[in-house]
Amino acid sequence: MEQIEPVERPLWNPYVAGAVLGLVLLASYLVMGFGLGASGATNRLAIGAAWCVAPHAVETNAYFAPYAGPGKKILDDWLVFEVLGVLLGGFLAAYSGGRLKLNVQKGPRIARTQRLLLAVLGGVLMGVAARLARGCASGQALTGGAALSVGSWIFMMMFFAGAYLFAPLLRKQWR
Amino acid sequence: MNTTLLESVTTRANHLIDPGLAIWGWQITVYLFLGGMVAGILSLSALLELRHGKPSSPIFRTAPFVALGILSLGMGALFLDLEYPFHVWRFYTRFQLASPMSWGSWILVAVYPAAFVFGLGSLDDSGRSFVRSWVPKNLEGLYDRVEKHAIERRREILTGVFFIGLGLGVYTGLLLGTMAARLQWNSALLGPLFLVSGLSTGAAFLLLTGLHEEERKRIVRWDVNAIGTELVLILLMLIGFGYGTESARFAASNFLGGPYTPVFWSLVVVLGLVVPLLMEAVEAKRHLPFTLVTPALVLVGGLALRAILLAAGQDSAFRLIP
Q1: Which of A50, A116, B49, B84 has its CA 20 to 30 A from that of B5?
Q2: Which of A37, A69, A102 is the last residue of a domain?
Q3: How many alpha carbons lie under 13 Å from residue B119 in its C-beta half-sphere?
Q4: DSSP class of B123
């Protein structure tokens, strides 16, 4: 098969992308009646997986029980389908931008395994924190922020404060 | 009134006749999916050769035999679903003009010899010698005559296989479409819808095998047309249901706010049709390298279409409509 070298197209202007994301949020409210979210879908997937392995433990846990159990459709939720759409949209964007390839984005001095371990650790921390905060950057900051929820605005400020505080510690991983 | 009881009385279904009202499971989904895909593989392979001469990509030498293997897997799944599998032969004691199952049984029987003869003509000399080495001594004369016809009457065979493939594709949809008691299936568009979906999944299968550039472009172009037609047919089907009788509107509501809405729109329409269509369009416009993800998404969408329609159909039986 003839191989054509893809021509990478420039990335979108982040401010334009941000404004469009705001419109996506508006459309989500109008069409589905719900805002955007991400960690909620991961939460459901994780509880669903746990229920497959240890149903009794999940059904007797006060936090997990409302989600999973006999007759409950844990994946029948807007966020699960929305995240599927995010994956597809990201894939389509990468392909149309000529950037579709399998790679691990990392700094030049860090090994691939170490980078992946750090990413998993970061993901676990973020997941636990998002459940404690009852939402993540999209559920709390974007959706709650758009609804002018005070808690969401406090979350957003703390979110940025935390990022600025810890970024210097991890900056060398990217240099 | 109890819905199940109502249907039992109305359709005369009871535990002595039909012990269950939703009795088709994964086996029928797999059968319809693989049957449609085989229809696509056979029809598109035949059409490609009819229009552009013998294709050069390696898969086309063996595609008819591969298609028969896939069809046999599908029929194996169908066999698993049968309550009395050893009564199958009774289908072949007669032909019932008004029965889609009778049509289907005979089409399936026609596919095997047609695809075999098509395959013999597609193989190169060494391939044909290999096939011949498996033929019993007393049948060699018959085999030689078949092989001679397979090569000399290629054009007629290709035309026949093209139409048999279309028949197989339409039949998988008509099988459901003629069951008026199932509101979700009560549409004449189901036959054409399953046919274009079958052509699209057949194209996807061929694309996954790695085709030569020129042939890939042709198959992609046909696939774009099939996916576009499929989207139009789905729209027409929903419009037809939506502006139909009370029962048809109930069928439409399954996909427009009802329980099958999320899976139908996300897995079938967006993941299986819109995204692959956009990717194929973008690929051609921006000269991007071909990615196997596009046909893989088409296959997932094709399987989801059948699984969802099968489940929604069995769920949309006759009931009291408020």
Answers
A1: B84
A2: A102
A3: 22
A4: S
Helices B59-81, B190-208: axis angle to 10 degrees equals 130
Interface test with B, best of A88, A99, A101, A102 (most B CBs within 10 A): A88
Distance CA A20, CA B297 (A): 26
Which residues in chain B touch residue A76, judged by CB atoms under 8 angstroms apart?
262
Say if the Cβ atoms of A88 and B286 lie within 8 Å: no
Residues in chain B: 322
Which range marks the domain in which residue A84 is found?
A: 1-102
Interface subset of B 208-247, CB within 8 angstroms of A: 210-213, 216
Per the domain annotation, does B13 fall within a domain? no
Instruction: Tell me if B289 and A85 make a contact (CB, 8 A cut-off).
Output: no
Cβ-based neighbour number of residue A60 at 10 Å: 10
Residues A28 and A85 in one domain: yes
Cβ within 8 Å of residue A100, ≥6 positions away: A6, A91, A94, B291
Domain span including residue B231: 21-315
Determine, for residues B288 and A76 on separate chains, whether the beta-carbon distance falls below 8 Å. no
Q: What is the ipTM of this complex?
A: 0.76
- What band does B18 get if pLDDT is binned at 50, 70 and 90? low
Segment B192-251, tens digit of pLDDT: 999 999 999 999 999 999 889 899 999 999 999 999 999 999 999 999 998 988 888 888
pTM here is: 0.84
Between A165 and B20, the more confident residue is A165
Q: Angle, to 10 degrees, between the axis of helix A112-132 and the axis of helix A39-53?
A: 100
Cα separation, A123 vs A167, whole angstroms: 15
Smallest Cβ–Cβ distance between A84 and the set B266, B278, B286 belongs to B266
CATH number of the domain at B272, please. Answer: 1.20.1630.10
Whether B16 maps to a domain, the answer reads: no
Residue at a domain's end among A102, A132, A157: A102
| Residue among B262, B279, B293 minimizing CB distance to A76 | B262
Contacts of B19 (CB under 8 A, 6+ apart): none
